[in-house]
Amino acid sequence: SGGAKCRLKADSSLISIANSATPQVPLAGIQTDGHASATFTVTISDETGARRASASTTLTLAEAEVDTVDVQLVSRSLDRLAYSGGSSLAGAYLSWKVDGPGVTEAEQVVIGASSGSAASAANPIPDDAVPMGWVGNQFILDLTRPSALIPGATYAVTLTSTGGGQGSLSFRIGLPPSGGACAVSPAAGTALTDPFRLECGGWTAEELPMKYSFGVSRGTTFNADAAVWTPASSSSQFVAYLDAGSYHICAQIFDAAGYVALGEQSHVDVAALVPTRTNETVGSDDDLVLDAIQGVMAGFFRLGQTSQLLQVSGSVLDGLQSAPAATARRMLLSSSAYRMRTRLLMSSQLGQVAADGSNMSPSTSSSVIGSVSLLTQTPEEVS
């Protein structure tokens, strides 16, 4: 209304607006002469009135009756938003736009109201981010495509009709968990005997609760795709026992909306287990190392700690699959006979886990089955 107050009726009395979240305001009789629009503002406050927030929306005023435009959110995920809309006016031409921080109407694809032609300005939302286009009764916004949309900001999706009507819904780009750190201790230890504790703290999220998943990757850099990940849980710490080698350990932090943050990587060096022999020791060094592997895995199995058991088996399996002469990460005493015995031991232990199957998530079950499958394939020791 150009800044002028438009709350007076023709008889100079004030308009009565209900104190509710969804008031209805009759425009008939309002003094709107000479004004092309009317702006409505809502203010929300706490009981004391000390904390206040407000939002406004502007409606275009027209002499003729406008059609009714309806907008509905069909589906929403972290990757995309899908909307549908329609008009009460048959044959109305419909166009969409997105308004908000970093995205102004002048920068949008401008739809010709009469001809339906489109002229593109410096568009902050590229065409591949709107696979259904900007016209019609369907609108999809692909949030995985690069655009000017800002995490943490709120935007309005508006459908406009040639009948003069408009409909709008808002959405917010969420923020992943932030502000925390993750660290591992110790930075070096001995295979199968020294526990490596990864602990995360200080993380905050908009959508609670948070969950944590921990990954271990063998090598000089962290490989998220090759890492063995634990199922997401509410525990912010994890203890891993590892075979000899060089590893990077990392955590993923999830919020309730599905947004994820990746913690910093921690490097650990694991020295090979050198069996301690006495006059009473029975068996070869190979036997002692296998006993250590079996003892760790059996202990985790009895405690129902499937995630820890998978981490141990994953690191040992990595060692088996590494070329024996390729790097310093070769297993201790990695003779063909020892490697075959290790395969049989791990296949038996993981087979028990798969058969038990209790309290396992689908992803954990998949990891167990995958490990057993790798172990039971024809190994190079007998090829």
Report on the architecture of this protein.
The N and C termini lie far apart (84 Å). The model is unreliable at 1-6, 106-122 and 323-334 (pLDDT under 50). Helix content is 19%, strand content 29%. The chain has helices at residues 285-303, 306-321, 336-356, 362-376; strands at 37-45, 52-60, 69-76, 80-87, 94-99, 110-111, 118-119, 138-142, 154-161, 166-172, 181-185, 188-190, 196-201, 211-218, 228-229, 237-240, 245-254, 260-262, 266-271. With 383 residues, the chain is an alpha+beta fold. Helix 2 (306-321) packs antiparallel against helix 3 (336-356). Strands 12, 14, 15, 17, 18 and 19 form a six-stranded mixed sheet that branches. The protein has a three-stranded antiparallel sheet with strand order 3-4-8, with no helix packed on it.
State the helical fraction.
Answer: 10-25%
Helix and strand element order: EEEEEEEEEEEEEEEEEEEHHHH
Outline type = elongated
Major beta-sheet overview = 6 strands, mixed
Q: What is the tally of helical segments?
A: 4
Q: Over the alpha carbons, how many angstroms does the gyration radius reach? A: 31 Å
Strand content: 25-35%
Q: What's the end-to-end separation, in Å?
A: 84 Å
* Structure class: alpha+beta
Number of strands: 19
What is the residue-averaged pLDDT?
76
Oligomeric state as shown: single chain
- Poorly predicted ranges: 1-6, 106-122, 323-334
Chart the SSEs and their pairings.
Elements (H helix, E strand, L loop, with lengths): L36 E9 L6 E9 L8 E8 L3 E8 L6 E6 L10 E2 L6 E2 L18 E5 L11 E8 L4 E7 L8 E5 L2 E3 L5 E6 L9 E8 L9 E2 L7 E4 L4 E10 L5 E3 L3 E6 L13 H19 L2 H16 L14 H21 L5 H15 L7
Parallel strand pairs: 12-19
Antiparallel strand pairs: 1-2, 3-4, 4-8, 5-9, 6-7, 9-10, 11-13, 13-16, 14-15, 14-17, 17-18, 17-19
Helix pairs in contact: 1-2, 1-3, 2-3, 2-4, 3-4
